[in-house]
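Local shape tokens:
==================
===
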Amino acid sequence: MSLVTKGIGLAKKAKHRFQDQLRERTPVYLSPVRRIERVATEERICAMTFDDGPCRLPANPDRFRGKALTLVLAEILEHYGAKGTFDVVGDTSANYPDKAGKHGSASWGGVAYDHYPDFGKDGQGGAVNCPELIARLLAGGHEITSHTYSHVLFGWKPLVYGRRKYLSGLEPVVEDLKRLHSTLESGWGYPVRLSRPPHYVDAIKGGLSSYDAYALMGYQYMAASFDGAGWLPLASYEAEVEATWRPMEKLLLETPEAFRGQIIFQKDGFNMARRTPVADGLDKQLQLLTDHGYRVLTVSELLERSPFQDALPESPAGRAARTLLGRGWCVAYQDNTLRAEAVLTRGELAMMAFGWETVRRRIDLVRSGRAPFRDMAPRHPYAAAALQATETGAMAAVDGRFRPEDPVTAVELAQFFSTRLGRTPPLENWSQLTHEKFFSMAAGLLEK
């Protein structure tokens, strides 16, 4: 392994450690957009995602008679009765002027921008240039998701991509997303529902993020819970292929249930050494999963069976929350958990009911810098929903304070249900109203 490769690997590990520590320290809030990494299920089902395609160039090394890499992956999946989720780009040919990066480095495909499937070969990749591959994927029952049109970073990422150009704010990000969305909708009548940001960069200039952009698009954030490897160059191609399946084999032998509900990350394209170990590793991965009784579904199929990370679909909380989710309520936290036993707060109640309605209003509040309440900053995730709740009369603020962290009382819940749903359930005595209890009450009223 080269020093460059070791450096990239160490940088990635350091980034993941930092992100894990940051998550532990950062409060998690309810959100219209949920980061989907894995779901709770008792079935042996999982999903496989493939970024950066479609790719018309053959695998490297080519052991498939010159077939396009995307077609190779689709045929291997279909051999096992599996459905893949292909996270495609539109076209990177406008990402010039630029120069090729160092072979084997993170900038291998371009110093200022990404170019897929390779520098100077943009016409051999992307949905715009490879319509026959998009049509083939859809004909095979695979899912298409958005990896943006041009694969330009949403914001600055100094650790690995400090020299990269990035989009200048929320509007350019949304414009880029809409461009791919309309391409797939007009060309194939295909509705995109999921998206993954380029290189998982979330921060957008102006204090906003990918979650705001996805909320405007009506998307959910497709992440992953298991790295299928192959993207990092190793000492040999054989070592790269082994890296795609050996960790999977080890985990399955240790814990056969380990892949239940997992989303696996892979590449529909070249790694940093311009090789495609996924082409030879995918068959081994699928054989391992098949031998252990797994079925590979699309991410959307996985979510249809079980939407949440911490609640089984047949559990009381899972069933009730799913009803509310289908009615446009924001029942889950940004990390896709329900936290059924948590005590429901006033801020959460407002967000559950008005989160989707106030997506644009939240952005306006952040930009204005005007606090809607004395105890809620304009950037508070629930600020816009709380403002909407008070304006509709569903909730009240006293002396200019909303008290977002206070538990919801029986009187407040009666006012909320009466105003928002036009009826009130029999109110029981409780010391603390949990999320699960609220889900059950609200779902019961909606189903009447």
User: Anything to note?
Assistant: Residues 182 and 345 are 39 Å apart (CA to CA).
